[in-house]
């Protein structure tokens, strides 16, 4: 049985990946949709043409991760794609956000992604693909968004290393590094602080990010960066010393905070 596994499938990027792949693929037997909100998963499944397995799991729970492993062992699917979209971020200075919420970012964005990837690879075959949702925040440290940026740096670094390790098996890994995307992400992220105004001008739709990410994955590219401004940002971080840019980012954040 050929399956696609998508985490964070109940909303945002995960939901968009499911819908686009559902329309475009004929060789997949079943989608495995993973998220906590079962009502959202049922709504998405009803809108899809392929057969769907709903897995209402909390990826920060070790018990739920063990349950996912048991499902794999029992059904022994051939995983043609793993798309790790589960994650969240909190905007605000480190000491202004409860440490439990920031530790949760690390847990979901890093540990859960790592464990899900580890669980799925033994069930992959040649030309299977892994898409890891990183962020343009991975390109450099970001004051006021520090923990999230650090977790996405982990995702990008891990994805690029894993890509090399899996080359001989012909399992392809692509890291997706968009800038701000118009999703529910900011409903959670802006509880303690606001997004920099300059970032709002680079906001793109999830449909575009997913379309370009799937194209990059099909072409076996290591990374997908969406939109000209974010491509320029990536290029800048490759050639400029990071310390001055980090300082300027912090000054812009402070200036925006004082205007409120």
Structural summary, described in words:
The chain has 260 residues and is of the alpha/beta class. Helices cover 50% and strands 16% of the residues. It has a 7-stranded parallel β-sheet with strand order 3-2-1-4-5-6-9, with helices on both faces. A two-stranded parallel ribbon has the order 7-8.
Short précis:
The protein has helices at 12-24, 38-46, 62-75, 99-120, 146-165, 185-189, 197-200, 206-218, 228-239, 242-258; strands spanning 2-7, 30-35, 51-56, 78-84, 129-133, 172-176, 181-182, 204-205, 223-224.
Q: How would the blueprint of this fold be written?
A:
Layout: E1 2-7, H1 12-24, E2 30-35, H2 38-46, E3 51-56, H3 62-75, E4 78-84, H4 99-120, E5 129-133, H5 146-165, E6 172-176, E7 181-182, H6 185-189, H7 197-200, E8 204-205, H8 206-218, E9 223-224, H9 228-239, H10 242-258
Parallel strand pairs: 1-2, 1-4, 2-3, 4-5, 5-6, 6-9, 7-8
Helix content: 40-55%
Supply the helix-strand structural class. alpha/beta
| Poorly predicted residue ranges | none
Q: Write down the overall geometry.
A: globular
Strand content: 15-25%
The chain-level mean pLDDT equals: 90
Q: What's the main sheet like?
A: 7 strands, parallel
Name the assembly state.
single chain
Tally of helical segments: 10
Distinctive features:
alpha/beta, 50% helix, two-stranded parallel sheet, 260 residues, seven-stranded parallel sheet
């Amino acid at each position: 049985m050929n399956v696609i596994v998508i985490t964070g499938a109940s909303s945002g990027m995960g939901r968009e990946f499911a819908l686009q792949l559902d329309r475009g693929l004929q060789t997949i037997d079943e989608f495995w949709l993973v998220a906590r909100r079962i009502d959202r998963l049922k709504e998405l499944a009803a809108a899809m043409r392929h057969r769907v397995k709903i897995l209402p799991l909390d990826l920060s729970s070790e018990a739920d991760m063990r349950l996912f492993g048991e499902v794999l062992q029992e059904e022994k699917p051939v995983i043609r794609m793993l798309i790790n979209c589960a994650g969240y971020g909190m905007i605000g200075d480190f000491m202004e956000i409860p440490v439990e919420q920031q530790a949760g970012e690390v847990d979901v964005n890093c540990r859960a992604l790592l464990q899900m990837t580890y669980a799925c690879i033994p069930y992959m075959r040649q030309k299977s693909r892994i898409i890891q949702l990183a962020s343009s925040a991975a390109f450099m440290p970001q004051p006021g968004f520090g923990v999230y940026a650090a977790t996405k740096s982990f995702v990008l670094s891990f994805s690029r290393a894993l890509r090399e390790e899996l080359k001989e098996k012909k399992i392809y890994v692509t890291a997706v590094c968009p800038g701000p995307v118009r999703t529910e992400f900011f409903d959670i992220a802006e509880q303690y602080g606001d997004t920099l105004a300059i970032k709002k001008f680079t906001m793109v739709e999830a449909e575009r990010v997913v379309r370009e990410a799937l194209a990059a994955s099909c072409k076996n590219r290591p990374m997908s960066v969406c939109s000209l401004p974010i491509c320029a940002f990536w290029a800048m971080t490759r050639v400029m010393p990071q310390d001055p840019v980090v300082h300027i980012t912090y000054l812009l954040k402070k200036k925006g905070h004082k205007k409120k």
